[in-house]
Amino acid sequence: MKILEQGVAALLLVVLLPFMLLIAVAVKLSSPGPVLFVQKRIGKDGKPFLIYKFRTMEVGAESRGKQTVPDDPRVTAVGRFLRKYHLDEWPQLWNVIIDDMSLVGPRPQVAEYFAGYKHLANYRLYISVRPGIAGLSSVRGQLWVLRAGKRSQLRVEAFYVTHRCFCLILRIIRDTTRIMFAGKSI
Fold this sequence. Notes:
By secondary structure, the chain is mainly α. It is built from 9 helices and 5 strands; from the N terminus they run αββααββααβαααα.
């Protein structure tokens, strides 16, 4: 399965490369700073890894100590568009190719924020698989996760880990694709 995912990710990266170059130019021209945002996340077995995304916020915005909220003033104009259609996530295909992530799996958590959740019941299950670009808690809705809290997100991700099968993975991919093309927030 892992080799199939890496092959699909490589194929998608090749197909999307011209669009990714356009996005990179737009990010660079729209605000000063690097094109990519690189951040430490928690991966399989609690191993930290670097996640790659197109930068959608002002440089240094994450150091101001709060997570992004709807209509966050730190998000750039190009960043709003990229986030709306989830185009900022495309560089994560490289994370799949280098085996830090999966196409589908639990959401990769920011290392600093997730450290406080090690005591929660489903934490070990959550980190027993590679995190994914798309996931069950993502298609259920990020706003739902914010309202329900991290414990509920861990329960949803634990459900995915214990019940994952080809049909569930296909359903998550289908729902993620619909959400992306509709420009809905996840």
